[in-house]
Structures are given as C-alpha cells and as structure tokens.
Design goal:
The complex is a heterodimer. By secondary structure, chain A is of the alpha/beta class. Chain A is about 40% helix and about 10% strand. Chain B has helices spanning about 1-15, 40-50, 110-120; strands spanning about 20-25, 30-35, 55-65, 75-80, 85-95, 100, 125.
Chain lengths: ~170, ~160
Amino acid sequence: MAVNRAKDGAPGFLTTRFEALLAWGRKYSIYPFTFATACCGIEVMGAFGTHYDLSRFGAEVVRFSPRQADMLLVAGTVNYKMAPVLKRIHDQMLEPKWVVAMGACAASGGFYNNYSVLQGIDKILPVDVYIPGCPPNPEGIIDAVVAIQKLLETGAPRAAERWPIKI
Amino acid sequence: MAEEKKSAVLETLVGKFGDDIVSTHSDFGDDTALVRRERIVEICTFLRDDPALRFDFAMDLTGVDYLGEEPRFEVVYHLYSLEKKHRVRIKTRVPEEDPVIDSVIPVWAGMDWYEREAYDMYGIVFRNHPNLKRILMYESFVGHPLRKDYPKARRQPTIGPDE
C-alpha cells in the first residue's frame, strides 16, 4: 500500500486516502432512524422488508435511539407541536448525520396548508435529500439512500454544512 | 311512534322552561332546541335528572362560528339517554363581544375536554371550568384557528422544545 512507500513529511496523501476509506466504510453502513408520523411510515416498513430489502444497500440496521443513528428519515406530516420534538431528536444525533425528507408533507407540508402543519421540515432542519410522492414508494427510499451514498462518495458538503439553520 | 317519542322530549322541555327555549324543531328526526345561554346549566340538569328524560350520556359538545350573524357563535350539545334510548340536540348562541357560557361540568364531568376544545378552536369561554386551557394547540399559539376569520395562510412562530 501507499502507506509503506510514503516519505517523511508527506501525510497529505495518507489523509486523503483515509477519508476515502472512511467514506467507503460509511457508505455501506448508514444506520437509519425512522421518524414516521403518517402513511409514509408504512412505505418505510415496505422498504425494510424482504421484498425491497434496504439491507442490500447497507442501511438495514434501524436504530431506535437517535444517538446511534446516521440518517434521520422523516416520513410523514410534522405539525408545529411536533417540530420541537423532531428538532431535539436531530440534535441528539451524532455528526456526521444526514436528513431525508420523505414525501410531500415532510418536504413541503403537502396538502396540509393550514394552521397546524409545519410547511416542510427544512424550516427547522437542514435536509440532504427530498423524496417526492404521497406517499413515495419503497424505491424512492432506496433512491434516497443511494443519493446519500453518492454524497459520501464524492465528499459533497452535507446540507448541515451548506445551510446552518438556527432556531 | 318514534316521532311522538321525540317530540315528547321537546314538549317536556318547553313545558318546563317556556320562553327560555327560543325555538325547537325535529328536522330529519333530530329533536333540536335552541335555548337561552343564561339557563344552560339548569336546562342540562333538568334533562339529566327528569325521570322521563334521563339524558345521562353527554355525547358531544362543539362550537360553530356563524361569521356575519349576530350572535356570532353557537355551542351545540348532543345528548343521549342510555336508559330511554332517545337523543336531543341543545343549541345556544353566544355573542362575539362576550363569548362566555356556564360550564356544564357540574352536570356531566365528561364535558371537560370538549369545552377545552371549543375554547381552543373558537375562543368560547366556559365560566367555572376548573382547567380552561388549550387542549389541541400549544400554549403560545395565538388566536383560535377554527374561527372563520382566522387567515388560512397565517403561520405561527416555530416553538422551542420547552413550550
């Protein structure tokens, strides 16, 4: 390996390789945390089930503690009363973390244009990937995981780095 | 047979309270009485305790906003008698400038959360309610969202974790 041939005082090469190696490892071990509040949650179950089998993409270990998760999958309607709960869950997750807004409600409020529903979780959280649909089918979730893998692969900045939203 | 039984409820009510019952009807077989709000607790107590009526089951309480009419708000009580198997709907109007009505919790304890909901959504104040605060919306929410003049597009400030 390049490590053996490295000269003294040339760690830059090694650092780059290490990050690439780390990204490669992360890419296939994204631990999701599902925040399912509506019908999108049913599609999430389908995505993790045997037929669609999200574990083929390395994202099968669903964590039910945000402290152990990498990816927050917000599946469903989030209202103003729920918003601080979601924000706190996101705060409890360790860096690096990714946020997926699944479905019309999480992305924009959907057809709930009313007094109680948050008009998209990007009002309070930096969102990396949006999945369109009402609800999206399980392929959409797989597509989102692959999109996050691409972010890791290319080293593209996460939404949290691009949009430092403070509430 | 069923018609006679229903109108008997309204007849008993009118016979007892007279002019405090503003109007009655039995449209589509639903006995309905519009009553004066000052007497609501007495009327409800009578409906519950009278041996011929026995409305022991307060099924629902809700508000209505008739924007543009005077009085503006209406409080609707849906009552059922488990013993007599009959129903009645009591309505009472509440003006906008003084949206206050006596709580019927002393009559039916189960009306607690319904009255809180009507307060939350319409801003109708139930006098003598032991815990009249919002039930669906959060404490810092401003306004009453089911009022017809609440703007559809109004957004409330996003709240923090402790509110």
